Each structure stands twice: as C-alpha cells, then as structure tokens.
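User: Working on a comparison across species. This one is ATP/GTP-binding protein from Streptomyces lincolnensis. Can you predict its structure so I can line it up against the others?
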Amino acid sequence: MRHVAGASAQGKTYRCPGCEQLIPDGVPHVVAWPDHAGVDDRRHWHKACWNARDRRTTRVQRSRNAPRF
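Assistant: Here's the predicted structure for ATP/GTP-binding protein from Streptomyces lincolnensis:
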C-alpha cells in the first residue's frame, strides 16, 4: 500500500473499488495491491474508502443506471 499525494496524482482518473466513484486528477488517494502481484493488480482507493474497507458489507452488483440507495 502506498499513499499518493495530490501533486503526484496528475494525468489520470481512477475508479475507486470501494465506492465505484471516480478519483479525479490531482486528488490524494491510496494505491494498494496484493503482496505477490504485478502492476496490473494495483487498485486506487479514496483514503476514506480504504479506511472503511473492513466495515463494508458484501458488494451488490448494480447496473450503471441503477439508483445507489
């Protein structure tokens, strides 16, 4: 796991696996990956989503147009 400062997060937009929302360019966030994994297994998380990952319930699959409630 690695923290990325806002100034270092330039040039790309990522989707947070915790909330499924975009992490805009220039926003500080966390990059996490499994111990014995490659570059393709990295995931970019909002800091709050990363801290709350153990408190989340199982993920419910929704279509992109479904309401979030």
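For your comparison, note: The longest helix spans residues 47-51.

User: Helpful, thanks.
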